[in-house]
Amino acid sequence: MILVTGATGNIGSALLRELRGCGVGALRGFTRDAARAAFPEGVEAVEGDFAEPESLKPALDGVRSLFLVSRLGPDAHIIETARLAGVEHVVLVSSITAQTHPHLGPAGENLAVERLLKDSGMAWTILRPTQFASNALMWAASVREHETVRAPYADTGLPTIHPADIASVARVALTEPGHRGRTYALTGPEPVTARQQVEAIAAALGRDVPFTEVSRQEAHAQMAAVFGDEAADAVLDVTGGDVNDELLKVRDTVSRVTGSPAREFKQWAAENAHLFR
After folding, report:
1. Nearest-angstrom CA–CA distance, 172 and 163
2. Looking at the chain, which terminus has fewer C-beta neighbours within 10 angstroms, N or C?
3. Which of the 8 DSSP states describes residue 49?
4. For the chain, which ranges sit under pLDDT 50?
């Protein structure tokens, strides 16, 4: 039995589809609202919430492999609960910033979760993806209202990754031998700037989408109101303010692990154009 947590999210939903497509057998999705979860046929929906860690126990009954995204709940309790339930292997989604910017608060938190998992006695595979293509959804409201998209560091290109590629690597790690005890840094196939992302969204919509670059100070004020000062600074550092060669590097991990090329940002934009209309 495989349990996918975050099963309605960008990665989890794609992972459930892939796992069903390859016929893995017993498969369960963990969600806050089982009645509304549109899972593939044959996937058992189990309701629970990481804010109530005890709700995870029934979901883990009979589970031998677990897909987990870091920092969505009390990770120490989640990992210990999984161990006590008899889980043998955990595939953890961390962040590439754990190796590129370990001094930043969120990166340090991810590293701490990685250490908890490694010390748990369960087998592990750690995925460290870079910036998600789906982060572009932060602009969706502006695009729908035909307003100007505003972003800092407009011409800094990061090798943005399609969430489905993270799911593809997770599916291989969960179902094929040779991936336990491995840490995979994951990127898309090419650097894509914020300006280019907006151009790709515009092309998918078939209309112009105005874009303007803003200062770090302006972007920080907007982000801090939502995430707080420290998180806003961390995001701004890794999207342009403090990038390094390790963060900018394009990696072939997705193609090596899955046998398929990593998806381009323009594919994500085309698949999700309806969210910007």
Report:
1. 15
2. C
3. B
4. none
